[in-house]
């Protein structure tokens, strides 16, 4: 499988480049950076700082290299991601997108793209996070209104969106287990006199230092509490998962896929 990595100098792009370069079933054919970056034209391996050159240059023009690839992996910015999506559709290329922070209207464009290309969207590509999601669904569907649900998510100081895309996905899973939509029952932070309303899901976002990613869901009952937590020590698990998603798309036709399909969850 021939792979194009978007944003190879970013924290995820570097790790995805490294993960893909280490796989026997993948060949990196291009890295695409935002326009104006000083490293345009340099070797992809050098830009991603993987310790060796790959014989592939970084460009700022996806359209000039898109026909070289079978699949595009994009963990860049929401602005760049929308441009990548349009080109992937135009050239009928499979796309893995892990960028977060999209509005519902923007997410609908990814859904629509699935009519024409293999489209895999994953707010979180960690295997353990997605197994955690299954546990959250089990607890919520079993206990329903017997428990209060609160989500605490922590990320580094550079994280742009809040709550995180992963925590939103967790909230949606639990809301659906309650037979509701997340936007109907989500409460974001509290201040002053704000008693808890039964049946809601509370969100709390921390941003500090270089915390990679941490999500804890609290299920509060009377006289007892269950906590389910996932900590990532670095972003390598997400990079490996992103490559697994790309490999999955190799044998897929047009459609909207998630990491659940990749992991058979």
How much helix is in the residues? 25-40%
CATH architecture descriptor name of the largest domain: 3-Layer(aba) Sandwich
Number of domains: 2
Supply the number of helical segments: 10
CATH homologous superfamily designation of the largest domain:
NAD(P)-binding Rossmann-like Domain
Low-confidence stretches: none
Summarize the biggest pleated sheet: 7 strands, parallel
Q: Order of strands across the biggest sheet?
A: 3-2-1-4-5-6-12
Q: Output the CATH class name of the largest domain.
A: Alpha Beta
Mass-distribution shape: elongated
Specify the structural class.
alpha/beta
Number of strands: 12
Arithmetic mean of pLDDT:
95
Describe the structure.
The radius of gyration is 19 Å and the shape is elongated. The chain is built from ten helices and twelve strands. It has two domains: 2-125 and 236-263, Rossmann fold; 127-232, Dihydrodipicolinate Reductase, domain 2 (2-Layer Sandwich), CATH 3.30.360.10. Strands 3-2-1-4-5-6-12 form a seven-stranded parallel β-sheet, with helices on both faces. A five-stranded mixed β-sheet has the order 8-9-7-10-11. The model has no long low-confidence stretch (mean pLDDT 95). Helix 1 packs across helix 9 (236-249) and helix 6 (127-143) packs parallel to helix 7 (165-177). 36% of the residues lie in helices and 23% in strands. The chain has helices at residues 11-21, 44-47, 62-65, 78-91, 104-113, 127-143, 165-177, 182-185, 236-249, 259-263; strands at residues 2-6, 27-32, 58-59, 71-74, 94-97, 118-121, 148-155, 186-188, 201-207, 213-220, 225-232, 255-257. It is an alpha/beta fold. NAD(+) binds at residues 7-12, 98-100, 122-125. Catalyzes the conversion of 4-hydroxy-tetrahydrodipicolinate (HTPA) to tetrahydrodipicolinate. This is 4-hydroxy-tetrahydrodipicolinate reductase. Residues 1-124 form the Dihydrodipicolinate reductase N-terminal domain. Its EC number is 1.17.1.8.
């Amino acid at each position: 499988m021939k792979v194009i990595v978007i944003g190879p100098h970013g924290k995820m792009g570097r790790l995805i480049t490294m993960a893909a370069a280490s796989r026997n079933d993948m060949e990196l054919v291009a890295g695409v950076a935002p326009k104006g970056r000083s490293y345009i034209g340099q070797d992809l391996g050098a830009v991603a700082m993987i310790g060796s050159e790959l014989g592939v240059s970084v460009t700022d023009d996806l359209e000039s290299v898109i026909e070289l690839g079978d699949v595009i992996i994009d963990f860049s910015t929401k602005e760049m991601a929308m441009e990548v999506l349009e080109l992937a559709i135009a050239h009928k290329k499979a796309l893995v997108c892990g960028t977060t922070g999209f509005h519902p209207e923007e997410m609908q464009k990814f859904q629509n793209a699935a009519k024409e290309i293999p489209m895999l969207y994953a707010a979180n590509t960690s295997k353990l996070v997605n197994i955690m999601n299954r546990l959250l669904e089990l607890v919520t569907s079993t206990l329903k209104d017997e428990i209060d649900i609160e989500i605490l998510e922590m990320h580094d100081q550079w994280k742009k969106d809040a709550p995180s895309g992963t925590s939103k996905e967790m909230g949606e899973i639990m809301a659906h287990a309650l037979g509701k939509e997340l936007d109907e029952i989500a409460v974001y932070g509290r201040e002053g006199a704000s008693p808890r309303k039964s049946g809601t899901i509370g969100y709390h976002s921390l941003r500090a230092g270089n915390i990679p990613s941490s999500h804890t869901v609290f299920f509060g009952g009377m006289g007892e509490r269950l906590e389910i937590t996932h900590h990532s020590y670095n972003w390598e698990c997400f990079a490996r998962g992103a490559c697994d998603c790309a490999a999955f798309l190799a044998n897929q036709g047009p459609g909207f896929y998630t990491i659940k399909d990749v992991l058979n969850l």
